[in-house]
Write a structure and sequence with these properties.
This protein has nine helices and 14 strands. It is an alpha+beta fold. The strands form four sheets. It has an eight-stranded antiparallel β-sheet with strand order 2-1-14-13-12-11-10-9, sandwiched between helices.
Length: about 325
């Protein structure tokens, strides 16, 4: 585990364990890690940057921007995709998708065709009527961004997110290999000891919903700028911060509510805005005060979620809340928004 607490140029690093149990190398803020669903905040950053430029609108629909997708999905809007109220069926729950992964974890998917796995399915509910976290939402967001600009999503990330925020360790790979140096991810509980699963699965099957590789250092810089609205306009930030009941996956610290590709975490010590994620070998939390002045990253080198171990997740959320308290207690109370 490594926790980075950041206040402007001041940084505190707290860690336990190692980046690699074979060598015993300590964890470091510039170690690469799988960001899992915190990648969804990056797709939000791209989309909201394009909204600021009037190249996309939050009310743009799938039918208008992506007419090749199923007609049954046509009324879902960019706003609903970003807030997980679209009703799109989750491609990652598809039996066919999962069978391919099980047979070949390194299988190379066409990332822009991932929604084909659920193209024959209706919406789960009327768009805007309820909240349901879906990995399909952010695939559609990235496809909308590409359709609006004619630019590949990977290039939009570089232009609209990495460069403005000075991110040096962040990329969206298609394969399974991790860039050096990296924190190894493990499955624990095996009688023979932890199993290294750092490069067990490829990223083409998650793409804009969970494929980004970054570092705690970069993630702190990203969430500082993103939470503060540095990549979009004040008017769009107001739209982004329309909160509804809904938790990130896994749930973050305190009481969770959902905005547009951003979650609000109301903790015992104050409010932070951010996102969580989990994938094989890794669990992440990125969060910042609403003004972006203070930020934290919390990275675990094993996967923890409600389905796998709810008791452990409860403990992790408590430690995350302690990290928020350390951040706000050390650097001052968080502003509410």
């Amino acid at each position: 585990m490594i926790v980075v607490l950041r206040d402007g140029d001041h940084q505190r690093v707290l860690s336990a364990g190692t980046a690699d149990i074979t060598t015993g190398r300590p964890l470091a803020p510039d170690d690469h890690t799988r960001t899992a669903s915190t990648s969804k905040a990056f797709s939000g950053a791209v989309a909201l940057s394009l909204v600021r430029e009037h190249r996309l609108s939050l009310d743009d629909t799938i039918g208008t921007r992506l007419p090749h997708l199923p007609r049954a999905w046509r009324k879902a809007t960019l706003r609903q995709l970003l807030q997980h109220t679209s009703g799109l069926p989750d491609f990652s729950e598809s039996t066919r998708f999962r069978s391919i992964i099980q047979a070949d974890p390194h299988h190379h998917f066409d990332s822009r065709r991932l929604l084909d796995f659920v193209a024959g399915e209706p919406l789960r509910f009327t768009p805007g009527s309820q909240y349901r976290y879906s990995n399909s939402d952010n695939i559609a967001v990235a496809l909308m961004a590409e359709a609006a600009t004619g630019v590949r999503y990977e290039d939009l990330l570089r232009r609209d997110v990495y460069k403005p925020l000075g991110l040096r360790d962040t990329s969206l790979p298609q394969g399974y290999e991790m860039p050096e140096p990296y924190m190894h991810g493990y499955v624990v509980g095996d009688p023979a000891g932890p199993v290294d699963v750092s490069e067990a699965i490829g990223m083409s099957g998650v793409w804009a919903s969970g494929g980004i590789t970054s570092s705690p250092r970069d993630l702190a810089a990203f969430i500082s700028g993103y939470a503060a609205g540095a990549l979009t306009s004040k008017a769009v930030v107001r739209e982004q911060r329309h909160w509804i009941p809904g938790a990130s996956e896994p749930a973050g610290p305190g009481r969770n509510s959902a905005g547009l590709a951003l979650f609000r975490y109301d903790t015992k010590c104050g409010v932070v805005l951010g996102h969580t994620g989990n994938t094989l070998g890794y669990t992440q939390l990125i969060a910042a005060t609403p003004d972006g002045r203070r930020a934290l990253t919390f990275s675990l080198t094993t996967q923890v979620n409600q389905a796998g171990n709810p008791e452990l997740l409860a403990s992790v959320r408590a430690v995350e809340e302690d990290a928020v308290c350390s951040l706000l207690g050390t650097y001052g109370a968080g502003r509410h928004s």
